[in-house]
Amino acid sequence: MWYNTFLSNLTGNSANFLFIMVTDRRNFLKASALLGSAALVGYIPQAKSIKSGPRSFSLCTNTETLGKNPDFFDLIVDSGVNVVWMPYFLNGYYPYSIEDILHWKGRFEKKGIEVQALTVPLGHPGNSLGGLPEFESTPKNWPRGVDIDGNKYSGTSLHPAVTLENISVIQKVGKAGFTKLFLDDDFRLARTPGKIGGCFCTNHQNEFLTKYGYSQTDWEQLKNDINNRHLNSITRNWINFNCDQLTNSFREQQAASPEVKLGIMVMYFGSEKAGIRLTDYKGSLMRVGELMFEDRLMTPVKGKTDELFSALFHRRFVTPELAYSETTAYPAQKLSAKNMAAKLQITTIADIRNTMMMSGLEPFPFTHWETLAPAMKKVAAIHKITAGQQPKGPLKHYWGESSRMIGDDKPFSLFLACGIPFEVTDTPSQEGWTFLSDFDYNDAASDKLESKGTTFVHRAKSGKNEKGLRFVGETLEEIYAFKHEILPQLKEIPVVTEDKPVVCTWYPKIKKVLLWNLSETKESITIRLNDRNYPVEIAGLDTEIVNL
Predict the structure, then answer these.
(1) Model-level pTM?
(2) Angle of CA points 79, 82, 88, to nearest 5°
(3) CA distances, 485 to each of 75, 274, 441 (Å)
(4) Please, what sign has the CA dihedral across residues 11, 13, 19, 25?
(5) Strand spans (E) along 12-126
(6) What's CA 174's distance to the chain center, in Å?
Protein backbone atom coordinates (compact mmCIF):
# COMPACT_ATOMS: atom_id res chain seq x y z
CA MET A 1 0.00 0.00 0.00
CA TRP A 2 1.21 3.54 -0.74
CA TYR A 3 1.55 4.52 2.90
CA ASN A 4 4.18 1.86 3.71
CA THR A 5 6.92 3.97 2.14
CA PHE A 6 5.88 6.96 4.23
CA LEU A 7 5.60 4.85 7.39
CA SER A 8 9.10 3.52 6.91
CA ASN A 9 10.16 7.10 7.62
CA LEU A 10 8.22 7.10 10.91
CA THR A 11 4.93 8.52 9.76
CA GLY A 12 2.29 7.43 7.29
CA ASN A 13 -1.15 6.96 5.87
CA SER A 14 -3.98 9.12 6.99
CA ALA A 15 -7.44 7.98 7.72
CA ASN A 16 -8.83 4.99 5.87
CA PHE A 17 -12.56 4.94 5.13
CA LEU A 18 -13.65 1.99 7.20
CA PHE A 19 -16.87 0.25 8.04
CA ILE A 20 -17.23 -2.47 10.66
CA MET A 21 -18.60 -5.23 8.51
CA VAL A 22 -19.37 -8.91 9.03
CA THR A 23 -18.84 -10.63 5.70
CA ASP A 24 -18.81 -14.25 6.78
CA ARG A 25 -22.08 -15.39 8.32
CA ARG A 26 -20.55 -18.59 9.67
CA ASN A 27 -17.90 -16.68 11.60
CA PHE A 28 -20.47 -14.18 12.79
CA LEU A 29 -22.72 -16.89 14.16
CA LYS A 30 -19.77 -18.53 15.88
CA ALA A 31 -18.98 -15.24 17.55
CA SER A 32 -22.62 -14.73 18.48
CA ALA A 33 -22.69 -18.15 20.10
CA LEU A 34 -19.73 -17.14 22.23
CA LEU A 35 -21.79 -14.36 23.75
CA GLY A 36 -23.59 -16.90 25.88
CA SER A 37 -20.47 -18.64 27.14
CA ALA A 38 -19.35 -18.25 30.73
CA ALA A 39 -16.01 -16.91 29.57
CA LEU A 40 -17.67 -13.87 28.02
CA VAL A 41 -20.48 -13.21 30.47
CA GLY A 42 -21.06 -9.47 30.63
CA TYR A 43 -18.55 -8.61 27.95
CA ILE A 44 -21.12 -6.65 25.93
CA PRO A 45 -21.78 -3.47 27.92
CA GLN A 46 -25.32 -2.33 28.50
CA ALA A 47 -26.18 0.81 26.57
CA LYS A 48 -27.33 2.62 29.70
CA SER A 49 -23.93 2.30 31.38
CA ILE A 50 -22.16 3.75 28.34
CA LYS A 51 -24.59 6.63 27.81
CA SER A 52 -24.59 7.83 31.41
CA GLY A 53 -21.75 10.35 30.93
CA PRO A 54 -20.29 12.67 28.29
CA ARG A 55 -18.66 9.88 26.27
CA SER A 56 -20.51 8.61 23.21
CA PHE A 57 -19.69 5.52 21.14
CA SER A 58 -20.36 5.39 17.40
CA LEU A 59 -20.18 2.55 14.90
CA CYS A 60 -19.92 2.58 11.10
CA THR A 61 -21.77 -0.16 9.25
CA ASN A 62 -23.69 -0.57 6.00
CA THR A 63 -26.89 -2.06 4.68
CA GLU A 64 -25.24 -5.03 3.00
CA THR A 65 -23.65 -6.15 6.27
CA LEU A 66 -26.91 -5.75 8.15
CA GLY A 67 -28.91 -7.54 5.47
CA LYS A 68 -26.62 -10.57 5.32
CA ASN A 69 -26.28 -10.85 9.09
CA PRO A 70 -29.63 -10.22 10.81
CA ASP A 71 -28.19 -11.01 14.24
CA PHE A 72 -25.74 -8.15 13.85
CA PHE A 73 -28.53 -5.65 14.39
CA ASP A 74 -29.30 -7.02 17.86
CA LEU A 75 -25.61 -7.13 18.70
CA ILE A 76 -25.30 -3.42 17.90
CA VAL A 77 -28.41 -2.58 19.91
CA ASP A 78 -27.06 -4.41 22.96
CA SER A 79 -23.47 -3.20 22.65
CA GLY A 80 -23.78 0.30 24.06
CA VAL A 81 -23.45 1.99 20.68
CA ASN A 82 -25.74 5.00 20.54
CA VAL A 83 -25.00 6.35 17.03
CA VAL A 84 -24.72 4.34 13.81
CA TRP A 85 -23.16 5.99 10.75
CA MET A 86 -24.16 4.57 7.37
CA PRO A 87 -22.24 5.19 4.12
CA TYR A 88 -24.21 6.57 1.21
CA PHE A 89 -21.89 8.08 -1.42
CA LEU A 90 -18.40 6.57 -1.86
CA ASN A 91 -15.72 7.84 -4.25
CA GLY A 92 -18.41 9.08 -6.66
CA TYR A 93 -20.73 6.04 -6.43
CA TYR A 94 -23.94 5.06 -4.64
CA PRO A 95 -23.27 1.42 -3.65
CA TYR A 96 -26.21 1.24 -1.21
CA SER A 97 -29.78 2.17 -2.08
CA ILE A 98 -31.43 4.93 -0.09
CA GLU A 99 -34.44 2.62 0.42
CA ASP A 100 -32.27 0.07 2.24
CA ILE A 101 -30.54 2.77 4.25
CA LEU A 102 -33.86 4.22 5.39
CA HIS A 103 -35.14 0.75 6.28
CA TRP A 104 -32.28 0.18 8.70
CA LYS A 105 -32.43 3.77 9.91
CA GLY A 106 -36.00 3.21 10.98
CA ARG A 107 -35.19 -0.05 12.74
CA PHE A 108 -32.34 1.49 14.73
CA GLU A 109 -34.36 4.55 15.66
CA LYS A 110 -37.11 2.37 17.09
CA LYS A 111 -34.44 1.01 19.45
CA GLY A 112 -33.38 4.50 20.47
CA ILE A 113 -30.18 4.55 18.38
CA GLU A 114 -29.43 7.61 16.29
CA VAL A 115 -28.50 7.03 12.64
CA GLN A 116 -26.52 9.47 10.49
CA ALA A 117 -24.80 9.44 7.10
CA LEU A 118 -21.27 9.66 5.78
CA THR A 119 -19.61 9.91 2.38
CA VAL A 120 -16.20 9.73 0.73
CA PRO A 121 -16.66 13.02 -1.14
CA LEU A 122 -13.47 13.46 -3.16
CA GLY A 123 -12.17 9.93 -3.50
CA HIS A 124 -9.20 8.42 -1.70
CA PRO A 125 -5.79 7.94 -3.37
CA GLY A 126 -5.29 4.42 -2.01
CA ASN A 127 -7.13 1.24 -1.09
CA SER A 128 -9.18 2.76 1.70
CA LEU A 129 -12.29 0.61 1.47
CA GLY A 130 -10.48 -2.65 2.04
CA GLY A 131 -12.46 -4.21 -0.81
CA LEU A 132 -15.04 -3.26 -3.44
CA PRO A 133 -12.35 -2.71 -6.09
CA GLU A 134 -14.93 -1.36 -8.53
CA PHE A 135 -15.38 1.64 -6.24
CA GLU A 136 -11.73 2.34 -5.37
CA SER A 137 -11.15 4.82 -8.22
CA THR A 138 -13.41 7.77 -8.85
CA PRO A 139 -15.71 7.67 -11.95
CA LYS A 140 -14.08 8.20 -15.33
CA ASN A 141 -16.10 11.38 -15.86
CA TRP A 142 -14.54 12.96 -12.76
CA PRO A 143 -11.46 15.11 -13.52
CA ARG A 144 -8.24 13.50 -12.36
CA GLY A 145 -5.79 15.22 -10.06
CA VAL A 146 -2.30 16.00 -11.34
CA ASP A 147 0.70 15.86 -9.01
CA ILE A 148 3.70 18.17 -9.04
CA ASP A 149 5.50 15.91 -11.54
CA GLY A 150 2.57 15.86 -13.98
CA ASN A 151 1.25 12.40 -13.08
CA LYS A 152 -2.52 11.89 -12.95
CA TYR A 153 -4.21 10.26 -9.95
CA SER A 154 -7.65 9.49 -8.57
CA GLY A 155 -9.05 11.18 -5.48
CA THR A 156 -8.12 14.04 -3.11
CA SER A 157 -8.40 16.73 -5.75
CA LEU A 158 -11.19 19.22 -6.13
CA HIS A 159 -12.89 20.46 -9.29
CA PRO A 160 -16.22 22.32 -9.74
CA ALA A 161 -18.04 19.23 -11.01
CA VAL A 162 -17.09 17.30 -7.86
CA THR A 163 -18.42 20.03 -5.59
CA LEU A 164 -21.67 20.13 -7.57
CA GLU A 165 -22.14 16.39 -7.20
CA ASN A 166 -21.50 16.58 -3.47
CA ILE A 167 -24.05 19.39 -3.20
CA SER A 168 -26.62 17.03 -4.67
CA VAL A 169 -25.56 14.39 -2.12
CA ILE A 170 -26.14 16.56 0.95
CA GLN A 171 -29.49 17.65 -0.47
CA LYS A 172 -30.52 14.01 -0.84
CA VAL A 173 -29.29 13.24 2.66
CA GLY A 174 -31.34 16.12 4.06
CA LYS A 175 -34.48 15.08 2.23
CA ALA A 176 -34.03 11.56 3.58
CA GLY A 177 -34.24 12.85 7.14
CA PHE A 178 -30.62 12.77 8.25
CA THR A 179 -29.38 15.67 10.40
CA LYS A 180 -25.62 15.00 10.26
CA LEU A 181 -23.22 14.12 7.46
CA PHE A 182 -19.51 13.35 7.67
CA LEU A 183 -17.27 14.07 4.69
CA ASP A 184 -15.11 11.08 5.41
CA ASP A 185 -11.75 9.57 4.48
CA ASP A 186 -10.48 12.32 4.12
CA PHE A 187 -11.65 15.79 3.19
CA ARG A 188 -8.25 17.00 2.00
CA LEU A 189 -6.11 17.96 -1.00
CA ALA A 190 -2.91 16.10 -0.12
CA ARG A 191 -2.47 12.46 -0.97
CA THR A 192 -0.38 11.58 2.10
CA PRO A 193 0.53 13.10 5.46
CA GLY A 194 3.55 15.40 5.34
CA LYS A 195 2.89 16.37 1.74
CA ILE A 196 2.28 19.90 0.47
CA GLY A 197 -0.85 19.24 -1.54
CA GLY A 198 -2.92 20.72 -4.32
CA CYS A 199 -3.76 19.78 -7.89
CA PHE A 200 -1.22 20.94 -10.51
CA CYS A 201 -3.50 20.49 -13.52
CA THR A 202 -3.64 23.18 -16.20
CA ASN A 203 -6.94 24.59 -14.93
CA HIS A 204 -5.68 25.03 -11.37
CA GLN A 205 -2.37 26.36 -12.63
CA ASN A 206 -4.03 29.05 -14.74
CA GLU A 207 -6.45 29.98 -11.99
CA PHE A 208 -3.64 30.36 -9.47
CA LEU A 209 -1.36 32.35 -11.77
CA THR A 210 -4.19 34.70 -12.76
CA LYS A 211 -5.40 35.24 -9.20
CA TYR A 212 -1.98 36.29 -7.92
CA GLY A 213 -0.52 37.80 -11.09
CA TYR A 214 2.26 35.25 -11.41
CA SER A 215 4.13 34.13 -14.55
CA GLN A 216 5.14 30.70 -15.85
CA THR A 217 8.57 31.36 -14.36
CA ASP A 218 6.92 31.86 -10.98
CA TRP A 219 5.09 28.55 -11.44
CA GLU A 220 8.37 26.71 -11.88
CA GLN A 221 9.77 28.51 -8.86
CA LEU A 222 6.73 27.46 -6.83
CA LYS A 223 7.30 23.80 -7.65
CA ASN A 224 10.94 24.09 -6.65
CA ASP A 225 10.00 25.76 -3.36
CA ILE A 226 7.43 23.06 -2.62
CA ASN A 227 9.93 20.30 -3.29
CA ASN A 228 12.41 21.99 -0.94
CA ARG A 229 9.76 22.93 1.64
CA HIS A 230 10.50 26.64 1.53
CA LEU A 231 7.85 28.80 3.16
CA ASN A 232 7.82 32.09 1.28
CA SER A 233 5.18 34.35 -0.27
CA ILE A 234 4.47 32.21 -3.34
CA THR A 235 4.33 28.96 -1.35
CA ARG A 236 2.07 30.60 1.22
CA ASN A 237 -0.22 31.85 -1.56
CA TRP A 238 -0.39 28.35 -3.08
CA ILE A 239 -1.33 26.85 0.29
CA ASN A 240 -3.96 29.51 0.90
CA PHE A 241 -5.29 29.01 -2.64
CA ASN A 242 -5.90 25.34 -1.88
CA CYS A 243 -7.37 26.07 1.54
CA ASP A 244 -9.78 28.54 -0.04
CA GLN A 245 -10.90 25.93 -2.56
CA LEU A 246 -11.59 23.26 0.05
CA THR A 247 -13.27 25.66 2.45
CA ASN A 248 -15.48 27.12 -0.28
CA SER A 249 -16.56 23.64 -1.36
CA PHE A 250 -17.46 22.78 2.23
CA ARG A 251 -19.42 25.99 2.67
CA GLU A 252 -21.29 25.56 -0.61
CA GLN A 253 -22.30 22.06 0.43
CA GLN A 254 -23.40 23.24 3.88
CA ALA A 255 -25.40 26.13 2.42
CA ALA A 256 -27.22 23.76 0.07
CA SER A 257 -28.76 21.89 3.01
CA PRO A 258 -28.40 23.92 6.22
CA GLU A 259 -30.59 21.50 8.17
CA VAL A 260 -27.80 18.88 7.87
CA LYS A 261 -24.80 19.53 10.12
CA LEU A 262 -21.73 18.88 8.00
CA GLY A 263 -18.49 17.49 9.38
CA ILE A 264 -15.01 16.62 8.13
CA MET A 265 -12.61 13.80 8.77
CA VAL A 266 -9.13 15.31 9.13
CA MET A 267 -6.07 13.30 8.09
CA TYR A 268 -3.20 12.57 10.50
CA PHE A 269 -1.75 16.01 11.36
CA GLY A 270 -4.04 17.44 8.66
CA SER A 271 -3.59 21.19 8.31
CA GLU A 272 -2.99 23.98 5.80
CA LYS A 273 -0.47 22.13 3.63
CA ALA A 274 -3.22 19.58 2.89
CA GLY A 275 -5.72 22.33 2.06
CA ILE A 276 -7.28 22.16 5.54
CA ARG A 277 -7.40 25.57 7.23
CA LEU A 278 -8.68 24.19 10.50
CA THR A 279 -9.97 27.53 11.78
CA ASP A 280 -12.46 27.58 8.90
CA TYR A 281 -14.33 24.59 10.35
CA LYS A 282 -15.14 26.06 13.74
CA GLY A 283 -18.56 24.85 14.82
CA SER A 284 -18.47 21.80 12.52
CA LEU A 285 -18.13 18.14 13.38
CA MET A 286 -14.50 17.09 13.15
CA ARG A 287 -12.92 13.65 13.28
CA VAL A 288 -9.34 14.13 14.44
CA GLY A 289 -6.44 12.62 12.53
CA GLU A 290 -5.02 9.33 13.77
CA LEU A 291 -2.67 6.87 12.11
CA MET A 292 -1.55 3.89 14.17
CA PHE A 293 -3.92 1.36 12.62
CA GLU A 294 -1.80 -1.76 13.21
CA ASP A 295 0.41 -3.19 15.93
CA ARG A 296 3.72 -2.42 14.24
CA LEU A 297 2.78 1.27 14.46
CA MET A 298 0.89 1.38 17.75
CA THR A 299 3.10 -0.89 19.87
CA PRO A 300 6.18 1.39 20.09
CA VAL A 301 5.93 4.02 22.81
CA LYS A 302 6.55 6.73 20.23
CA GLY A 303 3.70 5.38 18.10
CA LYS A 304 1.35 6.06 20.99
CA THR A 305 2.78 9.51 21.77
CA ASP A 306 2.67 10.51 18.07
CA GLU A 307 -0.97 9.45 17.93
CA LEU A 308 -1.78 11.42 21.08
CA PHE A 309 0.13 14.46 19.78
CA SER A 310 -1.93 14.60 16.57
CA ALA A 311 -5.22 14.27 18.45
CA LEU A 312 -4.22 17.01 20.90
CA PHE A 313 -3.25 19.29 18.03
CA HIS A 314 -6.59 18.92 16.26
CA ARG A 315 -8.52 19.45 19.49
CA ARG A 316 -7.28 23.05 19.44
CA PHE A 317 -9.77 23.66 16.64
CA VAL A 318 -12.90 21.80 17.74
CA THR A 319 -14.96 21.70 20.91
CA PRO A 320 -15.05 18.39 22.81
CA GLU A 321 -18.72 17.82 21.98
CA LEU A 322 -18.09 18.11 18.21
CA ALA A 323 -14.85 16.07 18.23
CA TYR A 324 -14.77 12.45 17.03
CA SER A 325 -11.98 9.90 17.25
CA GLU A 326 -10.70 7.68 14.49
CA THR A 327 -10.43 4.48 16.54
CA THR A 328 -9.35 2.30 13.66
CA ALA A 329 -7.92 -1.15 13.00
CA TYR A 330 -6.67 -1.53 9.43
CA PRO A 331 -6.16 -4.09 8.03
CA ALA A 332 -8.75 -5.57 10.34
CA GLN A 333 -6.56 -8.36 11.74
CA LYS A 334 -3.46 -6.21 12.23
CA LEU A 335 -4.39 -4.28 15.39
CA SER A 336 -4.59 -6.30 18.61
CA ALA A 337 -7.40 -5.86 21.10
CA LYS A 338 -5.08 -4.32 23.69
CA ASN A 339 -3.83 -1.70 21.24
CA MET A 340 -7.32 -0.89 20.02
CA ALA A 341 -8.38 -0.40 23.64
CA ALA A 342 -5.30 1.80 24.13
CA LYS A 343 -6.69 4.16 21.49
CA LEU A 344 -9.65 4.76 23.81
CA GLN A 345 -7.22 6.30 26.32
CA ILE A 346 -6.07 8.85 23.74
CA THR A 347 -9.67 9.94 23.24
CA THR A 348 -10.07 10.44 26.99
CA ILE A 349 -6.86 12.44 27.45
CA ALA A 350 -7.69 14.70 24.50
CA ASP A 351 -11.27 15.15 25.80
CA ILE A 352 -12.79 13.88 22.56
CA ARG A 353 -16.36 13.07 23.51
CA ASN A 354 -17.24 10.80 20.57
CA THR A 355 -15.46 7.52 19.91
CA MET A 356 -15.89 6.02 16.43
CA MET A 357 -14.55 2.46 16.14
CA MET A 358 -13.77 1.10 12.69
CA SER A 359 -12.05 -1.65 10.77
CA GLY A 360 -12.05 -2.53 7.09
CA LEU A 361 -14.72 -4.27 5.07
CA GLU A 362 -13.57 -7.24 7.11
CA PRO A 363 -14.36 -6.99 10.85
CA PHE A 364 -11.68 -6.94 13.50
CA PRO A 365 -11.76 -10.21 15.51
CA PHE A 366 -14.90 -10.66 17.58
CA THR A 367 -12.77 -11.71 20.56
CA HIS A 368 -11.57 -8.09 20.69
CA TRP A 369 -14.84 -7.27 22.45
CA GLU A 370 -13.66 -9.18 25.53
CA THR A 371 -11.12 -6.38 25.93
CA LEU A 372 -12.98 -3.47 24.36
CA ALA A 373 -16.27 -3.68 26.24
CA PRO A 374 -14.87 -3.33 29.78
CA ALA A 375 -12.42 -0.73 28.49
CA MET A 376 -15.34 1.28 27.07
CA LYS A 377 -17.08 1.19 30.43
CA LYS A 378 -13.96 2.28 32.27
CA VAL A 379 -13.02 5.16 29.97
CA ALA A 380 -16.61 6.40 30.03
CA ALA A 381 -16.49 6.51 33.84
CA ILE A 382 -13.12 8.29 33.88
CA HIS A 383 -14.21 10.74 31.20
CA LYS A 384 -17.20 11.66 33.32
CA ILE A 385 -14.69 12.94 35.91
CA THR A 386 -12.21 14.66 33.58
CA ALA A 387 -14.52 16.09 30.88
CA GLY A 388 -14.06 19.81 30.45
CA GLN A 389 -10.94 20.00 32.62
CA GLN A 390 -7.86 21.77 31.24
CA PRO A 391 -4.60 19.82 31.62
CA LYS A 392 -1.74 21.90 32.99
CA GLY A 393 1.97 21.29 33.19
CA PRO A 394 5.48 22.65 32.61
CA LEU A 395 6.02 20.66 29.37
CA LYS A 396 4.39 22.34 26.39
CA HIS A 397 2.79 20.69 23.37
CA TYR A 398 3.23 23.00 20.38
CA TRP A 399 2.72 22.59 16.63
CA GLY A 400 3.62 25.84 14.91
CA GLU A 401 3.08 27.46 11.55
CA SER A 402 5.98 25.83 9.72
CA SER A 403 4.90 22.39 10.94
CA ARG A 404 1.40 23.05 9.62
CA MET A 405 2.42 24.71 6.34
CA ILE A 406 5.52 22.85 5.11
CA GLY A 407 6.40 20.26 7.77
CA ASP A 408 6.86 16.50 7.39
CA ASP A 409 4.37 15.58 10.15
CA LYS A 410 7.01 13.97 12.38
CA PRO A 411 6.44 15.45 15.84
CA PHE A 412 8.80 15.63 18.80
CA SER A 413 6.30 13.76 20.97
CA LEU A 414 8.20 11.39 23.24
CA PHE A 415 8.33 13.94 26.06
CA LEU A 416 4.67 13.07 26.67
CA ALA A 417 5.85 9.70 28.03
CA CYS A 418 8.23 10.99 30.73
CA GLY A 419 5.69 11.31 33.56
CA ILE A 420 5.76 15.11 33.86
CA PRO A 421 2.47 16.95 33.24
CA PHE A 422 1.98 18.74 29.94
CA GLU A 423 -0.36 21.29 28.43
CA VAL A 424 -1.32 22.25 24.89
CA THR A 425 -0.33 25.70 23.62
CA ASP A 426 -1.18 27.39 20.34
CA THR A 427 1.53 30.06 20.79
CA PRO A 428 4.86 29.85 22.65
CA SER A 429 4.33 29.94 26.38
CA GLN A 430 5.84 32.35 28.90
CA GLU A 431 7.34 29.54 30.97
CA GLY A 432 8.26 25.88 31.04
CA TRP A 433 9.76 23.87 28.20
CA THR A 434 8.26 23.85 24.70
CA PHE A 435 9.12 20.91 22.45
CA LEU A 436 9.62 21.82 18.80
CA SER A 437 9.42 19.86 15.59
CA ASP A 438 12.41 20.17 13.27
CA PHE A 439 10.59 22.76 11.16
CA ASP A 440 9.54 24.88 14.13
CA TYR A 441 13.10 24.61 15.46
CA ASN A 442 14.38 26.10 12.20
CA ASP A 443 12.10 29.09 12.81
CA ALA A 444 13.33 29.47 16.38
CA ALA A 445 16.99 29.18 15.35
CA SER A 446 16.50 31.93 12.76
CA ASP A 447 14.52 34.16 15.18
CA LYS A 448 11.30 33.77 13.18
CA LEU A 449 9.75 32.11 16.23
CA GLU A 450 10.32 34.01 19.46
CA SER A 451 10.12 32.74 23.00
CA LYS A 452 7.97 34.60 25.51
CA GLY A 453 9.91 33.04 28.35
CA THR A 454 9.66 29.33 27.61
CA THR A 455 12.75 27.27 26.82
CA PHE A 456 12.55 25.78 23.35
CA VAL A 457 13.59 22.12 23.28
CA HIS A 458 14.68 20.55 19.99
CA ARG A 459 16.13 17.31 18.65
CA ALA A 460 17.85 18.75 15.56
CA LYS A 461 20.84 16.94 14.12
CA SER A 462 23.14 19.76 15.19
CA GLY A 463 22.73 18.55 18.76
CA LYS A 464 23.63 22.00 20.04
CA ASN A 465 22.40 24.09 22.93
CA GLU A 466 21.98 27.60 21.61
CA LYS A 467 20.62 30.79 23.09
CA GLY A 468 17.08 30.04 24.20
CA LEU A 469 17.29 26.56 22.62
CA ARG A 470 17.95 23.31 24.43
CA PHE A 471 18.90 20.06 22.67
CA VAL A 472 17.39 16.79 23.94
CA GLY A 473 17.55 13.66 21.81
CA GLU A 474 14.25 11.89 21.24
CA THR A 475 14.97 8.64 23.02
CA LEU A 476 13.49 7.55 26.34
CA GLU A 477 16.95 7.52 27.92
CA GLU A 478 17.63 11.12 26.92
CA ILE A 479 14.12 12.22 27.86
CA TYR A 480 14.49 10.64 31.32
CA ALA A 481 17.87 12.33 31.82
CA PHE A 482 16.27 15.67 30.98
CA LYS A 483 13.45 14.87 33.39
CA HIS A 484 15.83 14.37 36.32
CA GLU A 485 17.65 17.56 35.44
CA ILE A 486 14.53 19.70 35.76
CA LEU A 487 12.81 17.86 38.63
CA PRO A 488 14.30 20.19 41.32
CA GLN A 489 12.56 23.11 39.56
CA LEU A 490 9.11 21.51 39.61
CA LYS A 491 7.57 22.79 42.82
CA GLU A 492 3.86 22.20 43.51
CA ILE A 493 3.68 19.96 40.41
CA PRO A 494 2.87 16.23 40.58
CA VAL A 495 5.41 14.02 38.78
CA VAL A 496 6.00 10.31 38.21
CA THR A 497 9.17 9.39 40.10
CA GLU A 498 10.02 6.24 38.13
CA ASP A 499 11.68 6.16 34.73
CA LYS A 500 8.82 4.37 33.07
CA PRO A 501 6.83 5.44 30.00
CA VAL A 502 3.75 7.08 31.49
CA VAL A 503 1.62 9.97 30.25
CA CYS A 504 0.78 12.20 33.22
CA THR A 505 -2.26 14.44 32.66
CA TRP A 506 -2.79 16.85 35.55
CA TYR A 507 -6.12 18.51 36.31
CA PRO A 508 -5.28 21.01 39.09
CA LYS A 509 -8.83 22.39 39.45
CA ILE A 510 -10.16 18.99 40.55
CA LYS A 511 -6.88 17.91 42.22
CA LYS A 512 -6.50 14.77 40.13
CA VAL A 513 -3.98 13.16 37.82
CA LEU A 514 -4.78 10.74 35.01
CA LEU A 515 -1.94 8.30 34.37
CA TRP A 516 -1.67 6.29 31.14
CA ASN A 517 0.74 3.35 31.37
CA LEU A 518 2.38 3.00 27.95
CA SER A 519 4.01 -0.32 28.88
CA GLU A 520 2.27 -3.56 27.98
CA THR A 521 2.86 -4.92 31.48
CA LYS A 522 1.33 -4.00 34.82
CA GLU A 523 3.46 -1.33 36.49
CA SER A 524 3.77 0.15 39.96
CA ILE A 525 3.85 3.93 39.61
CA THR A 526 4.48 6.63 42.20
CA ILE A 527 3.23 10.19 41.92
CA ARG A 528 5.14 12.67 44.05
CA LEU A 529 3.71 16.06 44.94
CA ASN A 530 5.99 18.06 47.20
CA ASP A 531 6.86 15.66 50.05
CA ARG A 532 3.96 13.26 49.60
CA ASN A 533 3.92 10.07 47.52
CA TYR A 534 0.85 8.53 45.86
CA PRO A 535 1.48 4.92 44.80
CA VAL A 536 -0.73 3.28 42.18
CA GLU A 537 -0.68 0.10 40.13
CA ILE A 538 -1.74 0.34 36.49
CA ALA A 539 -2.41 -2.53 34.11
CA GLY A 540 -0.60 -2.56 30.80
CA LEU A 541 -1.81 0.21 28.42
CA ASP A 542 -4.47 1.18 30.95
CA THR A 543 -5.26 4.43 32.78
CA GLU A 544 -5.96 5.25 36.40
CA ILE A 545 -7.11 8.38 38.22
CA VAL A 546 -5.08 9.51 41.23
CA ASN A 547 -6.64 11.85 43.78
CA LEU A 548 -4.14 14.37 45.13
Answers:
(1) 0.91
(2) 105
(3) 53, 39, 22
(4) negative
(5) 56-60, 83-90, 114-120
(6) 27
